[in-house]
Amino acid sequence: QVQLVESGGGLVQAGGSLRLSCAASGRTFSSLNMGWFRQAPGKERELVAAISRNGGSVYYVDFVKGRFTISRDNAKNTLYLEMNSLKPEDTAVYYCAADRTWRVVLPTTPGEYDYWGQGTQVTVSS
Fold first, then answer.
1. What pLDDT shows up at residue 22?
2. Are 93 and 34 within 8 A, CB to CB?
3. What is the distance between the alpha carbons of residues 7 and 20, in angstroms, rounded to a whole number?
4. Is the per-residue pLDDT at 103 higher than 90?
5. Are 4 and 115 spatial neighbours (Cβ–Cβ below 8 Å)?
6. pLDDT, position 95
7. Would you say 63 and 38 are in contact if contact means Cβ atoms under 8 Å apart?
8. CA geometry: angle 81, 87, 89, nearest 5 deg
9. Of the candidates 15, 3, 1, which has an alpha carbon nearest to the alpha carbon of residue 78?
10. What is the pLDDT of residue 72?
11. Are 78 and 7 in contact (CB under 8 A)?
12. DSSP assignments along 36-90, one per residue
């Protein structure tokens, strides 16, 4: 079992920045692929970024490329999402997720992840 706790969300003006963190416990963090998802009201949960076990491989969806950076610190059992140049359309609940399966390709769909945090709200005002 893996427990994930997100933090760092809040209210920010358009063009601002936030850094989300996700603290993991219960399983060797370095054995998990990790991802950040988000869900806006009335919309489906969507992938934002994913990162491999050792951080050597990352994936971003097009709408965050160049603005968001996913990273991890396996010594601290923590996943991060640095978000810059935030836009009102980035407003959503952000979730971190963990995948325990050994894969060649990073998981990009919610169904491929086994564990989820409770989410943290990010609100970007115009």
1. 98
2. no
3. 6
4. no
5. yes
6. 98
7. no
8. 95
9. 3
10. 98
11. no
12. EEEE-TTS--EEEEEE-TTS--EEE-GGGTTTEEEEEETTTTEEEEEE-S--GGG
